[in-house]
Design goal:
Elements (H helix, E strand, L loop, with lengths): L12 E2 L3 E6 L7 E9 L2 E6 L8 E7 L10 E10 L9 E10 L2 H17 L1
Length: 121
């Protein structure tokens, strides 16, 4: 459980952009969701599908900046079930994904978005 201390090397910003994710296997069905936050080191998403820690995933992220999507590879680092408080609701998972690859141009775009959002606060 999160202790309230942010130990990340790179700042994150709350930024709900669209993301398509699939396991690093072409036959896997895609998961469509959105980011909760993003940084140059990774993303946090909410998903109905539980993923396994240390699973590699292929991502396609629409940064909502009118430019083409970015397509980093990622590694699932954290998976926590979100308590719904109700028996009849489907489960959701809070998932942290670290980027394994993020091309320089994509990195600059993400960094620019995060910097802009943090300055607004």
């Amino acid at each position: 459980m999160w202790d309230g201390v942010d130990r990340r090397r790179f700042p994150r910003a709350e930024y709900p952009c669209l993301i398509t994710m699939r396991r690093a296997a072409p036959s896997e069905q895609a998961i469509l969701t959105h980011t909760e936050n993003i940084s140059v080191s990774g993303v946090r998403i909410i998903s109905r599908k539980k993923l396994e820690v240390m699973m590699e995933v292929d991502l396609e992220i629409d940064l909502m900046d009118t430019l083409p999507t970015i397509a980093p590879k990622g590694m699932v680092m954290r998976v926590e079930e979100i308590p719904s408080g109700r028996e009849d609701q489907s489960r959701h998972y809070d998932i942290g994904i670290r980027f394994i690859t993020l091309p320089d141009e994509a990195r600059r775009r993400v960094d620019s978005i995060v910097e802009h959002l943090l300055k607004k606060k």
